[in-house]
Amino acid sequence: xxxxxxxxxxxxxxxxxxxxxxxxxxxxxxxxxxxxxxxxxxxxxxxxxxxxxxxxxxxxxxxxxxxxxxxxxxxxxxxxxxxxxxxxxxxxxxxxxxxxxxxxxxxxxxxxxxxxxxxxxxxxxxxxxxxxxxxxxxxxxxxxxxxxxxxxxxxxxxxxxxxxxxxxxxxxxxxxxxxxxxxxxxxxxxxxxxxxxxxxxxxxxxxxxxxxxxxxxxxxxxxxxxxxxxxxxxxxxxxxxxxxxxxxxxxxxxxxxxxxxxxxxxxxxxxxxxxxxxxxxxxxxxxxxxxxxxxxxxxxxxxxxxxxxxxxxxxxxxxxxxxxxxxxxxxxxxxxxxxxxxxxxxxxxxxxxxxxxxxxxxxxxxxxxxxxxxxxxxxxxxxxxxxxxxxxxxxxxxxxxxxxxxxxxxxxxxxxxxxxx
Length: 421
Prior knowledge:
By secondary structure, this protein is an alpha/beta fold. Helices cover 33% and strands 29% of the residues. The strands form four sheets. The chain has a nine-stranded mixed β-sheet, sandwiched between helices. Strands 1-2-3-4-5 form a five-stranded antiparallel β-sheet, covered by helices on one side. A three-stranded antiparallel β-sheet has the order 17-19-18. Helix 7 links the parallel strand 11 (236-240) and strand 12. Helix 4 (150-163) crosses helix 5. The N and C termini lie far apart (87 Å). The relative contact order is 0.09.
């Protein structure tokens, strides 16, 4: 008999029919390649008259014969006596089929990632669940310093998408949404959910899928989350937060890539909360791979005015979207907590506009003004720590003009109104 592995729901499986009513089952889960070889959790089972029983399993290097021998012996000892006595399938055939199955695991697993001829889609447009925060088919990192309203905003986005409410964002695309909480207590999150629901004009007990796992790593809850996402058909996942995910040293690239892989495997569309380092609010704390692997990085800034918290959202890194898109939210509190959520503007929270970083064009313009009205490309590049190519591209626009040089470098100045006319 020969096993023919196939891919089912991401797992490698094979069956060997032994008579009319009995089938030997092979299954490989969590297939991965490491520096020591190909690994998987291999399960062996028996289906007899429709009833499935587990014979044995092991999570091991499938290239190691000693481990395969051990697993096949363990499983064979649990074979029903009647099946063994019928001699429809021998212990030697069982071991040989396990060898063939393990040999084919990696190639079968990776076959799902094969490519094909692709044709450009002129009809493609970027779609948003709630702009500029959650883009369909993309992963977003929401970054800000601690205590600035990141979790409130992430949960507000989850409720918005899940309910389809247009109170805070418009337009909104409604979809089943889940919230993975690794930071706060279950009681706190359920209380906050009721407050956010009510503040948005929904029933306080309006449900939202939540996986409560305070203090747990994402490795611990990954399989449960994956199963729930399929069960509830969730389209959008919110993770709070990256720093609590427990994926090793945040500054190392390998754990960062592993976490981003897990998020992308959980859902095509996700929003993850991240902390910024104290010195740079535009940076995700830790490895640069977090920002590099995300489709969007959105910076959150906030301003507190008495019982109101204003929050500004601005795209600072984007794939398939425009950088600099802004959105403003107002959280109104009373003596017991959150009372109302609404759209906001800069007239009410002027500091949110003041905190918006200048564009490269504005930086070059301001630098020239600060230098007395003229500067050379080298001076601008060195002073702003900006690449010379970008500087020259900006200086080539109609806003700037060359002036007589006094040295080797060509100086530039702002074009006067007379010149513009």
